[in-house]
Design a protein that fits this description.
Structural class: alpha+beta
Number of helices: 5
CATH topology of the largest domain: Fumarylacetoacetate hydrolase, domain 2
Mean pLDDT: 87
Strand content: 25-35%
Distance between the termini: 36 Å
Helix content: 10-25%
Oligomer: single chain
Radius of gyration: 20 Å
Shape: globular
CATH architecture of the largest domain: Alpha-Beta Complex
CATH superfamily of the largest domain: Fumarylacetoacetase-like, C-terminal domain
Number of domains: 2
Length: 308
């Protein structure tokens, strides 16, 4: 399943959609139409929320309802005049798939570290959900940043779907511990944008990474079952059309599993929390740049850098 946050042109409220035959199915509306046509089974949800965070917190009943809505739509049902259950992508504005997330962790690949490595070797950072923007939205270089340099560290992100308390924490040396599919609702792309002192001076790590617009996220949430052959898939960063960095996806997926295990051993994690693993070094940006992060199966996260 490939999930999108979207807004209908002229309407501010965000909706939750899933791609089907090149169209965007409004899951909330489609599930309501299915219920009106066929009724609801005992114990089933009567409505689906229009945002991904509420959806994830409902757990398996929400996923089952979404599958039923898509099965219903595959039958090309007749709907009342004026009721629209699907949209062309050109008709909507894509939003971040998870506009209101929980905690956001950005980390290096801890899978290369020994399991007894001290926490001082765990490079990472935290971002706030107010910094999140979606595809096509502008990264704003803040006027208050003075002479600071602007950069991004592109990342593959896993959105937690299962309640970690219900998962068995495994030894990190086992393949199962390196499989991020066990805890991830799905995968998306993230740009960890930050400002820094070009002379190497200290910059407060909280505000440096958390200006508004400093966390592009999207374009979609791809469920683990849809990520075919990750050993052959690659993630690419382009700036102004030029490839700056490209790495295989499978190593990042293993790193996400290890990061989840280590974070979970020290704090509570909940559905809607995000763990993002950096794909490499920081890339300097300037006003006017177009930065693009892409994985074929997930899609393209593209944002322009503008002066605030």
């Amino acid at each position: 399943m490939k999930l999108f946050g979207f807004a209908i042109h002229g309407v501010r409220a965000q909706r939750l959609g899933a791609e089907l035959r090149g169209q965007l199915v409004d899951l909330e509306a489609a599930y309501a139409a299915r219920g009106a046509a066929r009724g609801f089974s005992e114990g089933a949800l009567k409505t689906l929320p229009g945002d991904l965070l509420a959806f994830l917190r409902l757990g398996q009943p929400a996923w089952q309802a979404a599958r039923e809505a898509l099965t219903f739509m595959r039958g090309r049902p007749a709907v009342p005049v004026g009721q629209q259950l699907t949209h062309a992508f050109e008709e909507v504005t894509l939003q971040p798939p998870l506009a209101q997330s929980g905690k956001i962790f950005c980390v290096s690949d801890w899978s290369s570290l020994p399991t007894d490595a001290g926490t001082s070797s765990w490079a990472g950072a935290c971002k706030v959900s107010s910094a999140v923007i979606g595809p096509g939205m502008a990264i704003k270089y803040p006027a208050t940043a003075g002479s600071c340099s602007l950069s991004t560290r592109p990342a593959l992100a896993a959105v937690i779907g299962s309640r970690p308390d219900d998962l068995t924490l495994k030894d990190e040396s086992t393949p199962a511990a390196q499989d991020s599919g066990g805890f991830a609702a799905g995968f998306t792309l993230l740009q960890d944008v930050a400002v820094s002192d070009p002379e190497g001076g200290p910059v407060d790590p909280i505000w440096a990474r958390n200006y508004d617009t400093f966390c592009p996220l999207g374009p979609a949430l791809l469920t683990p079952d849809e990520l075919n052959d990750p050993a052959c898939a690659r993630i690419r960063l382009l700036v102004n059309g030029q490839v700056q960095h490209e790495v295989p996806l499978d190593g990042l997926l293993r790193g996400l599993g290890v990061a989840f295990s280590r974070l979970r051993s020290r704090m509570s994690l909940q559905p809607g929390d995000i763990i993002a693993i950096w794909m490499g070094r920081s890339q300097l940006l300037k006003v006017g740049d177009i930065v693009r992060l892409e994985v074929d199966a997930i899609g393209v996260l593209e944002n322009a850098v503008v002066q605030d």
